[in-house]
Automatic annotation (TrEMBL):
Protein name (Swiss-Prot/TrEMBL): AAA family ATPase
Highest taxon of the lineage: Bacteria
Alphabetical list of Gene3D superfamilies matching this protein: P-loop containing nucleotide triphosphate hydrolases
Domain AAA+ ATPase: start-end pairs: 172-363
Amino acid sequence: MNAITSLANKPLLSPQIDPPPMPSALKELDIPVVVLENLVLKHIAHLTKATVLELADAMGVSTHIVDELLNYLRKRSLLEVFQPMGLSGSADYSNNHVRYGLSASGEQEADLAFMKDAYVGPAPVSLDDYRRVVALQDVRVNSIGHEQIAGALRGVFGADKMIEILGPALNSGRALLLYGNSGTGKSFVAAQLINSFESSIYIPFAVYTSGSIIRVFSDAHHKMLDNNSTANRIHFNEQYDKRWALCERPNIQVGGELTMEMLEVNHSQHNRVWLAPLQMLANNGLLIIDDLGRQKISVGALLNRWIVPMEYYVDYLQLPNGQQAAIPFTLNLAFSTNLNPLDIGDPAFLRRLGYKIEFFPLNQEDYMTLIEEVSESRGLTINSEFREMVLRLHSTDRTPFYPCIPKDIIGICSDIIKFNQESHVITPSILESAWRLYCTSDGMGGNNE
């Protein structure tokens, strides 16, 4: 498989499913009332004083639901009510002007709620609702066609050969193993696969299950397309559930920094907010484990952790309170490595990797075309002497035509030209200088293969 490192065009995205409808009653949330009451207390503690509208916006629920929760809290004497001066009894007065604060006993309850978990944000969705929406947004519901995979791999050399392999692989939903020498484009191609899925998805801000709130939406891993910000200006029945965010499908890539803790429900170092593991963040999207075999955890431990989820598409997570939750494992999982597959896993694991795809260096013709395209994109000129020098350097150092080289080498040539204030022509001498700066004494690793 051959690849160049240029960006594929992103397709226009439309939601795969209708948006989750806005709940109109407390019971429709399917969340224990005490959990929602605690969330109200934490929001008020955070805001000091808050109106019904402010709480509804912060929790992503209707004002009717907030009113219900406030009534419960008032009956328990956990709230203080502050009415605006001069408006009480006037025509301009409404419940939206009333501000709520915590009473002394309310502050104590809020402190207890924060000790249990420090989550403050939109109300969580139930695990059942999360499972249902994830299942509806499964990429296998709408199979990828030849045109979609071709669009995702636009700008990739050898894409015509990849399409016939990667298309069925993605539609299968099974894990992929991309292997081959370093620099052959495995990670780049893997990252482009998400562009095959021409649809957006709804991701919850948080999920509630078995006494725990798990934060799911992450600014670092999810790209929001619509935050439902127009909801205040449209009719209630036209709104969708604000506890969900419309996002691009997640495209999460992790390498040597991967630890076993990142695969379990965990809290941040600064507070007790329980965070979803990587595989849950990647649901309905793509999770790439890059440089497999270079992680701090052993390959065996990593593969054993996921051997059941890959087989049955469900992951069993240990929750902070010691209980266990069955979470959907509905994602495309891709492993990338420059190690021999036989050296990283036993036959039982390799069997569960439905598609094992080897990547190779470019052929000479494609490689030279790539160099020309990269040079042109940087406004640099090359000539026949340059081309001859490229082939000579590769032959002398016995370096394969890895697709990662042109971008790096031409970049160094550009730096040399700018520094010396020379014309925008890459001469053989400049190329040779760049090559020696880029390569180690034994070339690009070709001598060690």
